[in-house]
Amino acid sequence: MRRAIRLRSAAYPVVGLLLTLSLALTLWSQRAASVYAIKNAKIYTLAGPAIEKGVVVIRDGKIAAVGAGVTIPEEAQVIDGTGLEVYPGMFDPITQIGLNEVGAVGATVDTSELGDFNPELIAATAVNPASAHLPVTRASGITEVISAPGIGGFDSQSTGIIAGQASAFHLAGWTMEEMQINRSVAMVLNWPSIQTSSFDFSTFSVKEKPYADAKKEYDKSVNQLADWLTRARHYSQAKEKGSPDLFVRDLKLESLVPVVEGKLPVLVVADEARDIRNAIDFCTKQNLKMILASGAESWKVKDLLKEKKIPVILGPTERLPEQEDTAYDQPMTQPSELNAAGIPFAFSSFGTSFSRRLPQYAGTAVGYGLSHEEALKAVMLNAAQIFGLADQLGTIEPGKLANLMVTTGDPLEIQTEVRYLFIKGRLTSTDNRHRDLYEQYRKRPAPAR
Amino acid sequence: MKLRLLLAAITFVTLAPLGARAQSSNAPSNNAVYVQNATILTITHGNIEHGSILIRDGKIAAVGTDLKAPEGAMVIDANGQYVMPGIVDCHSHIAVDGSVNEGSVAVSSMANIADVLNPDDISIYYDLSGGVTSANILHGSANPIGGQTVVIKLRWGKKPSELPFQGALPGIKFALGENPKHSNFQVPPGVEPRYPATRMGVEETIREAFREAREYKKQWDDYNRRKASGEQALIPPRKDEKLEPLVEVLEGKRYVHAHCYRADEILMLIRVANEFGFKIRTFQHVLEGYKIADEIAASGAGGSTFSDWWAYKMEAFDAIPYNAALMTERGVVVSVNSDDAEEARHLNQEAAKSMKYGGLSANDALKLVTLNPAIQLGIDNRVGSIEVGKDADLAIFNRDPLSVYAVVQKTLIDGQVYFDRQKDIAARPALEKEKQDLLAKEKKASEEKKASDKPEAKPEKKPDQKKKHPQYSDDRAAGVAGDSR
Predict the structure, then answer these.
(1) pLDDT tens across B376-389, in order?
(2) Contact yes or no for B141/B175 (Cβ under 8 A)
């Protein structure tokens, strides 16, 4: 029997919310065999033109069919999407979600290990599936993220040179085993920048040092880095060709083998043009597959990025220019400049609590020249392509995982709400800590005087 | 270093007078500016389609649909654009030379932010590009009672003395919770930790300071009374720079802007204020304000909060993006602030979040960054809405400012254009050329110097072009590594 889930828009949000919640609660526990159909919605598949009054059928966690004339299966639970829009879920490709609960409370933070070279560390190991950040973030339509060790952001500092492996996962699930998409999507490499001034938090002042000293430190770091890669190559050869009796396993070098083989990309964090150039030069010589992260001055290095086919995971558009004599709006216009130059890029929050600002960062770039269509791709599809996950994610096409959202309108607009959220084909609650606290304190009676 | 200074100088010399240049080149003969064909978001009198604003001598002289540009007026055609009141940022640390924290003592009321205003801070220009025209420049939050604060207008390129908002009452920063008790701050080895280290100690510090302030005030009141009654040979009490501002607080001549997070500490400060007979003007951040909105409303204090920051420290873990809307619903005058030079560039976007989280109307959302912060700072008779007689502080957007796609085109203060997007863009090639010329000159000079120098001379120190902007605000940084602005 076809069960209809119909929500009259006037009755929303109260009835709608309750229905959504009860549905989510009921359905969450069921096996993924559930079949859903969203009908009468405008569907932005990102694989072709938008479909007016279309149907999406979801079966066994995946998208089974999408189109205007698709037949709704008998057993489907139906969501009437009249007046609503359907999009692929958003993908935030550099976060610390699950690794960082309360930034200032060290006991709740697992982003930064001691030591400069830790290729064996894997973010997924320390992601807390019960983190309050997961439901808060997904309520804004973000369905999957990558958490990366050692990358600084809004509420953490960059640490280490090879900081470990970044993991991609869905923002819903009981365990990491259920949530993970790929435990190792990239090796984080914080490019050792030549910094003559740095902020010293212990004395709360800017410390200056001579260029020669900074350059010396930089050269030492890069040499160490090169040395690690050389050893990984030797290790690989020894494993392949050496005597098994003499072979001693090394977990760090073992983790670097896919990197030197060019199979696992390096996620190189660099902002200044000089650092980006140096990093590209290094990765080219070392035959590494490079993805640039943050890239504040990518606009200065467009030709090289284009020539070497290096994609960019951009830090928030809402940041200040790197230098005072840079145009005031450079961080906002950069996405459209990269797009015009044919350089693939994706937006990212680089944060935990700010992951939900992802659509805002993309929307801001549209205000400064990026096309709306490209902006949607840059929060939904591009990251999946850059990290080799586009066979599973990023568009609404049959066979892909059903990570999608049903919204009240343009998902980049601040006021737009996510009405329904599907993660791995499951109708997933958008309830979260913030809404709970709101509902709880809204009910507080006026205090007695 | 030299180059960096040079570059900073270029920025100043060429960018700073942009607004001024725009003024002089288009200087109206009769001091009249006329903004026409705009959608005008007045805040207090609804929205006007195809409306015009006449500005005379920096004040709004007329607003309506049936106006005509006076002869000789500078005309700004805002066809298809939106004009809103200039944004008022109730919590900012821009335009400050050096650190905003005098953190060595628990009561630093003798320190005054107004003494260290820097009109060349590029952040002023950045924030103008986001439509901000006035800002409450606060001391940091390292102390239960911090330094004195000042309201400024973002008159980029003018003298330091021209920044302060004339007529605005001065303020003082208080701070409660983790920052003043140094929870997230690692004291360097060998340094004695500073009292207080608990919320109990924070309360005690404030109470003790006001006990002293009352004694001090009594001494002066006695002295003045005796002097007035004709007593001779009186010795006046010794002037105390720490207590003077607190006496002004007791006399209602100085506003208290209190940094706070948790509901309990907010109630604590309301109790202390009642005990000593003063008022809290605004609770800043006030992230748990939604839990005790009725009590805040009853105290008469305003609430100035973030749109959606949370979880960067323990006391921000119960922060919710519904805070502004819920406090508004319960009768608190609420503003949304930046606390950060970057965040201030999109306060219009941050205000829009209260429509999604808590269902504020569009006009009430805009009030969060215009009229309400103006009320909180006691300058609503001058700014915060588009009304005849008010200062002509305006932000002109290319579309509805509550849209994420809206971009500021012009920002006016006192009827003068301080930011003009098209002029900024047009000036870039010349700026770039000037920079390259200067770099070439510097390079040539350094090569010539090298050639003439003895071979064993030290190599020229490479320039450090990196300018670290204060990206992290006090509270962000507090989450990172114990800043306590």
Answers:
(1) 999 999 999 999 99
(2) yes
